[in-house]
Amino acid sequence: MRAHLGDRLVVESPTTGATKRDGEIVGLHHTDGTPPYDVRWSDNDKVTLVYPGPDAHVQHLEHEAAAPRTDART
């Protein structure tokens, strides 16, 4: 799992019928984007240190403009 600042961490609920939790990744502790992360949770606006488990995934946002395409001429 790798993330950038501004990506969204989503933690799925292990219980049927319970809601998932999500928040914005506002802090990285490793330059390669691996956990742990500082996450500002959308439900209470608090920032906590998170070591994501197997029920979590990162929703990546667009961080850079798309790379220019090279023109292949035949």
Q: Notable features of this structure?
A:
74 residues; mainly beta; five-stranded antiparallel β-sheet; 5 strands
Overview of the molecule:
The protein has strands at 8-11, 21-28, 37-41, 47-50, 56-59. With 74 residues, the chain is an all-beta fold. Strands 4-3-2-1-5 form a five-stranded antiparallel sheet, with no helix packed on it.
Short description:
The protein is built from no helices and five strands.
The major beta sheet can be summarized as: 5 strands, antiparallel
So how many helices? 0
Helix amount, in percent?
under 10%
What topology, given as strand order, has the largest sheet? 4-3-2-1-5
Strand content: 25-35%
Mean pLDDT: 85
Low-confidence stretches: 64-71
Q: Please give the number of β-strands.
A: 5
Order of helices and strands: EEEEE
The backbone outline, from C-alpha atoms, is: globular
Give the C-alpha Rg.
16 Å
Which structural class fits the helix and strand makeup?
A: mainly beta
Distance between the termini: 40 Å
